[in-house]
Each structure stands twice: as structure tokens, then as C-alpha cells.
């Protein structure tokens, strides 16, 4: 069976980076005093996440494919990486919700009702909870990871004119 050590390494790194990001959001007050800004600023995480995905693909190209990687080889690697990140997502969400920022859900529920996004606390609580965030996080990680890979591989792949072995090399 082929191994996916590089994908596993980068999935762990990206998961740890996401936990660090959440901790920084909490320290900045985005889960409490400045929660109104959280919706907008949390999306900035896409920048370092895309950067890490590109680094992972470059690592695969250099250390597994000897600097010669086809679009297909990179896409397969990125899909595997995205699946691993998606599978780790419920754990990172649990750590986030229970250890890093246990007040986030109560705070966002309260504020969303105050602002009129939801009529009742029960309606808001049905949206802002671990289960919803775990599912949304896993699906989002998979979709965004594959989309990022599909785009990044236009730049990371070995350009035509160079010899590329189009078979999938052992990982």
C-alpha cells in the first residue's frame, strides 16, 4: 500500500495552524467583546490555509516526485490532503469548542439574537453548536482543499516541455 506521509504531515500542520488561529481570534476578543467582527475577520484564515496547501504540494513535488509533478499527481495528493484535513476537522472543532473558546457558542448565540439574525435563542442555538460546526468544517475543508489544489496545481505542476512521469508515483 502506498503511504501518504507528506499529506499526513501537512494535514497535522494545517490543523495545528487552525487551532492557533482560533486561539489568536479569542485573544483578540473576536469571540467576546468584538464578536461582531468575527464573521468578517475569521475568513482571513483562507490566506495562510492556501499558503500551507501550496507548500504541501511543493513538498510533494520536490521530495516524492523529484521536482517533476504532473497536474494529476498534484491533484491526487491535494485530494488526499483535503480528505485527511476533513477527517481531522471534527477533532479540531471539539478542541476549539471545549478547550480554547468554550464561551464562543453562548456569545454568538446571544449576539445573533440581539442583532435580530434569529428570533429566539433556541433558533440561534440550533445553528451555533458543535455538531453543525463539525459538519460544516469537515465539508468546507474538503471542498476548499480540493478547489485550492485544483487552482494551485496550474502553478505548481511541472510545465510542458519537461519530461513528467504521468503514473502516480509511490507517496
Ends distance: 10 Å
General shape: elongated
Helix content: over 70%
Average of per-residue pLDDT values:
93
Unreliable parts: none
Rounded Rg: 19 Å
- Summed up, the helix count is 7
Topology pattern, helix = H, strand = E? HHHHHHH
Main structural class: mainly alpha
The amount of beta strand, in percent, is under 5%
The tally of strands reads 0
Work out the count of structural domains.
1
Main sheet makeup:
none
InterPro entries: DUF4199 (IPR025250)
Keywords: Membrane, Transmembrane, Transmembrane helix
Transmembrane segments: 12-31, 37-57, 78-96, 133-156
Protein name: DUF4199 domain-containing protein
How would you sum up this structure, described in words?
This is DUF4199 domain-containing protein. InterPro entries: DUF4199 (IPR025250). Keywords: Membrane, Transmembrane, Transmembrane helix. This protein is mainly α and 171 residues long. The chain has one domain. The protein contains 7 helices and no strands. Helix 1 (5-27) packs parallel to helix 4 (71-100) and helix 4 (71-100) packs antiparallel against helix 7 (130-156). It is elongated, with a radius of gyration of 19 Å. The termini are close together.
Question: How is the topology of this model organized?
Answer:
Elements (H helix, E strand, L loop, with lengths): L4 H23 L7 H7 L4 H18 L7 H30 L3 H11 L6 H7 L2 H27 L15
Helix pairs in contact: 1-3, 1-4, 3-4, 3-7, 4-7
Relevant terms:
7 helices; 0% strand; mainly alpha; elongated; 171 residues
Brief synopsis:
This protein has 171 residues and is mostly helical. It is 72% helix and 0% strand.
Amino acid at each position: 500500500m502506498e503511504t501518504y506521509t507528506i499529506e499526513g504531515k501537512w494535514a497535522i500542520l494545517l490543523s495545528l495552524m487552525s487551532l492557533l488561529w482560533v486561539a489568536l481570534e479569542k485573544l483578540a476578543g473576536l469571540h467576546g467583546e468584538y464578536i461582531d467582527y468575527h464573521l468578517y475577520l475569521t475568513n482571513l484564515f483562507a490566506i495562510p490555509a492556501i499558503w500551507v496547501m501550496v507548500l504541501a504540494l511543493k513538498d510533494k513535488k520536490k521530495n516524492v516526485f523529484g521536482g517533476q509533478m504532473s497536474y494529476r499527481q498534484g491533484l491526487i495528493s491535494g485530494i488526499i490532503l483535503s480528505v485527511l484535513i476533513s477527517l481531522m476537522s471534527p477533532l479540531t472543532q471539539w478542541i476549539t469548542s471545549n478547550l480554547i473558546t468554550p464561551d464562543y457558542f453562548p456569545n454568538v448565540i446571544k449576539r445573533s439574537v440581539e442583532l435580530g439574525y434569529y428570533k429566539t435563542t433556541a433558533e440561534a442555538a440550533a445553528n451555533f453548536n458543535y455538531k453543525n460546526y463539525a459538519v460544516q468544517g469537515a465539508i468546507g475543508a474538503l471542498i476548499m482543499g480540493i478547489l485550492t489544489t485544483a487552482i494551485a496545481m496550474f502553478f505548481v505542476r511541472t510545465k510542458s516541455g519537461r519530461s513528467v512521469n504521468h503514473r502516480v508515483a509511490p507517496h
